[in-house]
Amino acid sequence: MNFQLSEEQQMIRQAARDFAKNECFAGVIERDEHQRFPREQVMKLAELGFMGMMVAPEFGGGGMDTISYVLAMEEISKVDASTSVCMIVGA
Is the pTM above the cut of 0.85? Predict the structure, then answer.
């Protein structure tokens, strides 16, 4: 059994990590303290294809595998749990 991530999975993980660092980190404490919906971050997640990752392409999703989805969700969650919950709902 091969437990190595594919090149695509590694790229998705890195893209999610970069997104979390560059888009979610700034203001995360303020959004949580004021219970603000991370609208801007969620819209950008959708633009990047992180919403509906596991939905079949014929239904408007990304058609990605579970590992890619979990890697992306994990990287977003490390920085902003609220944004990752929105990503989960849009899976």
Answer: yes
Task: For domain 8-59+66-89, give its CATH number from 1.10.10.60, 3.40.1370.10, 3.40.190.10, 1.10.540.10.
Answer: 1.10.540.10
Q: Measure the CA–CA gap between 87 and 48, rounded to whole angstroms.
A: 12
Nearest to 48 by CA among 21, 80, 15, 71: 15
pLDDT above 90: residue 88: no
What is d(CA 34, CA 75) in angstroms, rounded to the nearest whole number? 23
Q: 70: which 2 tokens?
A: 């979990």
Phi, psi of 33 (to 5 degrees): -60, -35
**C-beta separation of 22 from 59 below 8 A:** no
